[in-house]
């Protein structure tokens, strides 16, 4: 999910085995598993959903980001029966409602993240193999690497060891020209925020960011144990907004949603929190959040 202007785009993904039941209308629908090429857009001003041109290559677990009014997608998985990524990339022009194929990356890559930085598109981490995508191998594992796409030169450049771990990152965001991360796909919140040092090609812990998401609010410690079911972040100005959801203990299913904010420009006391919200039922977050500017 990404945004351009006042419009939110939901792109690709996969169907899971799920049965939707509406007891009031006696309605049952079974969602068959499959990879999606659909692109939906939500006009926040008109409060309407509509369909865009579909992806050229259906995919899920792919990198996606926006730059200069276009949406870029790269890598991902194209079938459900293969644990291998693709090198295919494409860009969407919302004015023309068209997807344009881009040059292939040098790696087959999925579960990577996309972020615009320094005028280029970075596809970072993921499960990656370097080699000829038309052959069955041999391959060289390049999980901690990245590739950057230059829209002006229309080519990809390989970057070794840009991500510290073999485990793919959960999210990487750009705040005033600096890259930040808070976790990986196995642990979306590692207990602190990290910033990328491009000169040393390493990630450093941000001073004052060590407060765990689950205990930022002083009242949280008084609550019974709870299970975090999602955590995602989005940048607004110099601040990082964290949206975290928890499954609360008890016989009744209750989801607790918390929003915490870290000011990357603060020298001390960078964290603040909003009043949490508790709702009956269980929520499912299938993508990261995004930010859009309303005029």
Automatic annotation (TrEMBL):
Pfam entry (one): Kelch_1
InterPro entries: Kelch-typ_b-propeller, Kelch_1
Superkingdom as given in the UniProt entry: Eukaryota
UniProt-recorded name of the protein: Uncharacterized protein
């Amino acid at each position: 999910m990404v945004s351009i202007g006042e419009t939110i785009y939901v792109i690709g993904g996969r169907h899971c085995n799920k049965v939707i039941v509406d007891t009031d209308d006696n309605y049952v629908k079974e969602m068959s598993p499959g990879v999606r090429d659909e692109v939906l857009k939500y006009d926040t001003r008109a409060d309407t959903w509509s369909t865009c041109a579909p992806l050229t290559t259906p995919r899920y677990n792919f990198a996606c980001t926006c730059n200069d009014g276009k949406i870029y997608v790269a890598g991902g998985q194209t079938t459900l029966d293969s644990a291998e990524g693709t090198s295919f990339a494409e860009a969407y022009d919302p004015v023309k409602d068209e997807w344009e194929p881009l040059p292939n990356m040098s790696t087959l890559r999925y579960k990577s993240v996309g972020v615009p930085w320094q005028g280029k598109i970075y596809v970072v981490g993921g499960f990656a193999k370097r080699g000829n995508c038309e052959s069955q191998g041999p391959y060289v594992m390049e999980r901690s690497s990245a590739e950057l796409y230059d829209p002006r030169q229309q080519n990809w450049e390989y970057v070794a060891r840009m991500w510290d771990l073999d485990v793919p990152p959960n999210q990487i965001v750009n705040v005033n020209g600096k890259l930040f991360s808070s976790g990986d796909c196995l642990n979306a919140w590692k207990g602190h925020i990290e910033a990328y040092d491009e000169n040393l090609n390493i990630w450093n812990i941000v001073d004052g960011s060590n407060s765990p998401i689950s205990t930022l609010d002083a009242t949280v410690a008084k609550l019974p144990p709870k299970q975090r079911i999602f955590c995602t972040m989005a940048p607004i100005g110099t601040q990082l907004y964290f949206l975290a959801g928890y499954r609360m203990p008890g016989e009744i299913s209750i989801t607790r949603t918390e929003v915490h904010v870290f000011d990357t420009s603060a020298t001390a006391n960078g964290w603040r929190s909003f009043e949490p919200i508790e709702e009956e039922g269980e929520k499912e977050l299938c993508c990261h959040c995004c930010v859009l500017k309303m005029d």
